[in-house]
Amino acid sequence: xxxxxxxxxxxxxxxxxxxxxxxxxxxxxxxxxxxxxxxxxxxxxxxxxxxxxxxxxxxxxxxxxxxxxxxxxxxxxxxxxxxxxxxxxxxxxxxxxxxxxxxxxxxxxxxxxxxxxxxxxxxxxxxxxxxxxxxxxxxxxxxxxxxxxxxxxxxxxxxxxxxxxxxxxxxxxxxxxxxxxxxxxxxxxxxxxxxxxxxxxxxxxxxxxxxxxxxxxxxxxxxxxxxxxxxxxxxxxxxxxxxxxxxxxxxxxxxxxxxxxxxxxxxxxxxxxxxxxxxxxxxxxxxxxxxxxxxxxxxxxxxxxxxxxxxxxxxxxxxxxxxxxxxxxxxxxxxxxxxxxxxxxxxxxxxxxxxxxxxxxxxxxxxxxxxxxxxxxxxxxxxxxxx
Length: 387
Known about the structure:
Helix 12 (319-329) packs across helix 15 (356-367). This protein has helices at residues 11-15, 24-35, 81-84, 93-96, 106-114, 123-126, 182-191, 209-216, 234-247, 272-275, 281-300, 319-329, 332-337, 340-350, 356-367, 369-375, 380-383, and strands at residues 5-10, 39-43, 54-58, 76-79, 128-131, 134-135, 153-154, 168-171, 196-198, 224-227, 255-261, 304-309. By secondary structure, the chain is an alpha/beta fold. The termini are far apart. It has a domain at 1-103.
């Protein structure tokens, strides 16, 4: 067998200012080729690609730039949600189900440490086995890369990706509780005796008393993360939060919810007339109100929101309000102590006065005083009912 030279490019590593998570597809490709005796190099630029028999380029984020001429090269193969979003092709089975090469990023990690990056910011490269126990989701959310699937499927056994020299496990499952084998999966994770986490978040709407007791009794790593994407789910979310309260007492771990905002479902409608109705001024006001309302509900149950801004927020007349909300909520220590108004005022002082923060605060309040009156001054410590 002739050994070949393989170049692997994690486009997000090159094209984004911070890179804090390895590309799983790249690690699987590397693992497969190294097992065949091939020479594998993690490329950190797009130069001299002609020196490689095959160059694989992968990216997760759609806005990560990649030179278009590079993609035309005959020895280049590329894939991932960053290129194809909800239509990304799968890796061949022999690669998809191969043990990832957890040493692929070793040299890059050394460079980062030498440049002053903290070890904790590189933990997913050094401390975690990473993989999927299940794939897909049945929800069909129009903003999601899994929108074309109708069910959750069991995907990989732990033996396929767990390196027992790694102290922790990170799962990338899309909706594990939607799988009929959820209990077996959790029990097998517990048997590893390793802390584990579901990084993408879990579907809180599917919780039952049995699921809560098994999940919350696990050796869980970090915050328990769920998602609260739609205000229409508020009653169901609250009922499940009450169920959590009945069966779990906080042991120092936060319960956090990803809170999606700035997404108008009409954008994805096949009817062109309905599409044209997306992102009106009324939508922006209602969306910000609904975001505040979800934050309020989470405050009440001692949960932390993490604001996830859909890309269209960049086109909103209230772009700054979305920036402020994310800055306030996504800093838990600030969020727990200060109302939205207090945070904006203090941030303005910190920046020397007359900052964009305070202008954004006043802009939305001037246009929608009733919404501001209802939500600007609510505080976590006053609303929360300790779990």
